[in-house]
Every structure is written in C-alpha cells, then in structure tokens.
Amino acid sequence: MQAEYDIVVIGAGPAGLAAAIEAKKNGIESVLLVDRDRELGGILQQCIHNGFGLHYFKEELTGPEYAERFINELETLRIEYKLETMVIDLTKDRVVTMVNSKDGLLTVKAKAIVLAMGCRERTRGALNIPGTRPAGIFTAGTAQRFVNMEGYMPGKRVVILGSGDIGLIMARRMTLEGAKVLAVVELLPFSSGLTRNIVQCLEDFEIPLYLSHTITNIKGNHRLEGVCMAKVDDNRQPIEGTEIFIECDTLLLSVGLIPENELSKSADIEIDAKTGGPIVSESMETSTDGIFACGNVVHVHDLADYVTLEAQRAGRSAAKYVKESFNHKKPVICVKPGQGIRYVVPHFVNFDNLEGNLELFMRVDNVYKEKNLIVKLDDEILANVNKKRLVPGEIEHIKINAKKIHNKAVSCITVEVQRERA
Amino acid sequence: MEVNMERRNMICIACPLGCRIEVFKNENESGFSVTGNQCKRGKDYGVKEMTNPTRLLTTTVKLRNSYLKRLPVRTDLPIPKEMIASCMSEINRIEVCAPLKAGVVLIRNILNTGVNVITSRSISAKS
To answer: Do B72 and A148 touch (CB under 8 A)?
Structure first.
C-alpha cells in the first residue's frame, strides 16, 4: 500500500503534537501523525507531576493535563493519526515506511517530514558498572511508567544513580508510594537536574544527595541485594577506601538521555556529536531538504514548554516548505559554541527565512557564577547578557532581533562565556 | 531539622527557573521581606515557606476497566507540606472506573483542608 501526504510527523509526544497542529493551522490539510504507542502524548502521560505549562499556558499543569490540551486541539482540527504504528525506515526523498497490525506494511510519500521521535534513556550497559546482573535495576523512566501507568512497584529499598530530573522526580514518587529512597548518587560535583526538583523532591523528603560519588559494584544473584558507593576524585575516579555498601533491592538509573536518531541517520541527516541530534537551521530544517526536526530528538530540553515552542517553529517551517515559500538560497551563517559553551541550537542560520527574532538555545559546560554570555557576529558583539549563575543542567536562551543580522556579509555567530580578566 | 525563623536562604520552586531568594523578618504587612526573586510569585513563595509551606500533591489511584492500571490525580490546590503523608493514605483508599474526564472531583475537601482531589487526565473505557 502506498499513500501520499503533504506532511508526515513522526512521534506524537509534545513535539509531534505541536508540530502537527501548527502545520494544519498554517493551511496544510493533509497531515499525518504517527506514533508507536497505544495513545497520543508520549512520555507526558507518565509524567504525572506538576510543573508543565507555566511558560506556555501561564498555569501549572501535570504532564497528562499538558498533553490533553494538545490532544483535544488535534482532535478538533481533525488531524489524522496512526497509533501502534512503528516507522521502520525513512529516506532522504521523504518516503516513510511504517508497519502496524491493521495496515501491515505501509509506504507513505510526504512533501515534508517533521521528526519528533524524542529520546531514550541511557542504560546500565552504557555505564559499564561492574557486578552481577540481578533483577531490580531499571532506568528511572521505565520505573516511572511502571508506577504511574502500569501499576507495578519496582521495589522497596531504592538507590538512584544520577541526579537528572527523572531521577529526582522518581525519588519523590517512590517515597510517596511507600519505598525508602536511601541515596541519590551523582558523579559530578553538581546536580544535572533543575534546582526546584532538588528542593521539592529531595529536601522536602530528607533524601540524601551524594555529589561526587558513584556506584562501583552491583551485588545480588536473582534479585539486587545491594550496591557499593564510593567517592570520586577530580578525574571522576573512585577513591580507594571510601567505598560503602548500601543494602537495597532496587537501583534506578537517571544517567542521561540520548536523542533517538536511527531514522534520521537512515535519511542521511547530519548529526551533531555533542547533542546527539540533527544539525538544524533557525527554521528547524535538518541537513536534508524538507526534513525538519524538533524537541528532544534534536537536543534534550529541560521543559516541555520549550519543546512546544520549538515544535511550532518546525511545523510552521514545514508548512511553508510545502507551500513552496521556503528559501534555500545560500549563503548561510554558521552558529558555533565558543569558550564555556557545550552546544548551541540552531547550528546554522539562513537569514532569508528568519522571522522576527533569532532564538539561540545553549548549554554551558560547567558551573559559572556572575558571568556574561556573549553573542558575536564575527567580531561584532550582538548581545552581552549578565547571568548570576550558569549550570549545565539548565538551558540558556538568548533572543536576538533579526534586524541586527540582516543583509550583512557575515560568516559566523559564536556564543561564549565571558573570559576571566587577566 | 533546626529552622531559622528570622532569616533563610531558599530556592523558589514556584516555577522551574529556581530563583535563589532570601527571606527575612521585618515589620511590614506580611512580616517578611524577600530579595532575589524575579516575580511576585517568588515573594509569595518566600513568605509562605516561613509561615505555612504548601505543596501540590500529584499521585495515582487504582483504575478499573481500562488499558491502564493507574489513573493520575492531583490536589486542585496546594496542601500543607506536613499533610502530604496523611493525604496519600486517604487517596490510596479509593478506586475508580473508566471512562472518566479530566478535572473530576474524586475526594472533596480532603482531611478538611478545603482542597479537592481531582483526576488529571481523561481516560476511555477498555474497548
């Protein structure tokens, strides 16, 4: 079976929902949204905590409530979607191959594609923790789905490795459900989670956070019996003699997220090694014509609200592309991370497609206090913003008026953290 | 835990920005001054943390007649922080049946707090 659509959106989490809605609102009638899960909303459905929507809706919602607003809008706009449908291939000519139990194998040709596959959790395999392989070791997100949707409690005495947001949220969640969370263990000297989550998930429940510590061994035959925790030095190596044994039946891993880009790679899309996601333009177009990307598949965001805004940009751009008002003229300006910056999104700017403001999103590579973030257009300073505190766990965002960039023969925008004065 | 009732440094959790604020006792109307906050909610949060700290409680309840086993619920307003455990015990006693709409009151005025427990998503029945 072969079908044709103007726009196919892959993934129906916060990014895919917003992109599909925005494409339709921008005059595209033929939009198809595809997801492998049995319902729309993606990971939002398991994020039952509050904190969503403060920026976008100016009110505080839970994940499922945030998703429901978009799902309702999608239904009202009569946007077509397929659930329990797995996309198995994508070509650079925008042919999508998908499979489900109703249609069988289905090939869809699209004028434009929006990638919104999100990300996956890093697992124990990616960490190489020594020890046995007993039951009781889960990624934090898997445990979240078990507890909040499927009705299984992973265990009673819990250690959490990694202080990313999902780990912090799960520390509170497991405690509320009657488990004892013995420790949250973080390799780095700072948490990679949002500060508010340290306060309301750990401090509120007096859960200890061990910074500059790691798990050095996993013990247990059938079920996890305990883990060894040790202090680490400045090179993140365990310090001999600091090891202690913690008896526990469950280990949750919250050790990072990896954008899920197998499909992007099959369409020859260029990937940024730092973000793990596609290289994108100001319009969220990838290196392949007509294929756009947004949300955590591009880079891991802190907040769903920012995913929504980025996805709307991708949806609008895809609509513009289909209506052939999209400009592919070179030259483009490259955007580069300078000193102190790990990455910047977008990676390049085609100023003919720039509307209003250029929005730059970046992560710093370390903790900085009282520093300026400086945006330069070649040698000219475009923005110089003072920041009380910069941490790798929180995305920084700088808006630049497009008028400042237009019609200038420039080659490169760089963002950097102000250097120490000599 | 010893808590200084005169002056405290804290992190505002009213939104994900996480402003570092300082709250100290003075003679004005609320009894406290707040510095370091970027919006009005930060001031309210600081004063509240000194007088009556509250939290929104989100959890799940047992769900029948659905493809899911648990339904997410939340309090419609924040509850006093020290009542989190007792409210959890109350909420854990109930069981609901799909279909249900989001925002339906499941427990009215939980433990006389004046706060309701509501469903936080819609759920269709098992097909």
So the answer is: yes
What distance in Å separates residue A181's CA from the closest CA in chain B?
15
pLDDT tens for chain A, 422 residues: list them. 679 999 999 999 999 999 999 999 999 999 999 999 999 999 999 999 999 998 899 999 999 999 999 999 999 999 999 999 999 999 999 999 999 999 999 999 999 999 999 999 999 988 889 999 999 999 999 999 999 999 999 999 999 999 989 999 999 999 999 999 999 999 999 888 888 889 899 999 999 999 999 999 999 999 999 999 999 999 999 999 999 999 999 999 999 999 999 999 999 999 999 999 999 999 999 999 999 999 999 999 989 999 999 999 999 999 999 998 777 666 688 999 999 999 999 999 987 788 788 999 999 998 898 899 999 988 888 899 998 888 888 899 999 988 887 656 668 999 999 876 54
Sign of CA dihedral A185, A192, A262, A80: positive
Q: Which ipTM did the prediction report?
A: 0.90
DSSP A119-150: EEE--GGGTT--B---B-EEEHHHHHHIIIII
Most B CBs within 10 A among A39, A40, A47, A50, hence the mutation to make, goes to A50
The values of phi and psi at residue A213, to 5°, are -130, 160
Q: Chain A interface residues facing chain B, Cβ-Cβ under 8 Å?
A: 38, 45, 48-51, 54-55, 60, 62, 64-65, 67-68, 147-151, 176-177, 194-196, 198-200, 204, 206, 302-303, 388-389, 394
Q: In terms of Cα–Cα distance, which of B30, B32, B44, B29 is closest to B8?
A: B32
Name A348's Cβ contacts closer than 8 Å, sequence gap at least 6: A279, A280, A281, A282, A332, A333, A334, A335
Cα separation, A180 vs A163, whole angstroms: 17
Q: SS3 for A270? A: coil
DSSP string, B86-127: HHHHHHTT-EEES-B-TT-EEESSGGGSS--EEE-S-BPPP-
Kindly report the pTM of this predicted structure.
0.93
Is the Cβ of B18 closer than 8 Å to some Cβ of chain A? yes
Residue A68 and residue B88: Cβ atoms within 8 Å?
Answer: no
Helix (H) or strand (E) holding A330: none
What are the residues facing A376 on neighbouring strands?
A381, A414
Which chain A residue lies closest to B77 (C-alpha atoms)? A60
Tell me whether residues B122 and A68 touch, CB distance under 8 A.
yes
Residues in B touching A177 (Cβ below 8 Å): 59
Contact A23, A318 (CB under 8 A): yes
Amino acid at the residue A233: D
User: A148 contacts in B (CB within 8 Å)?
Assistant: 60, 70, 72
8 Å CB contact of B60 and A204: no
Tell me whether B125 touches chain A (CB under 8 Å).
no
- How far is the C-alpha of A163 from the C-alpha of A189, rounded, in Å? 11
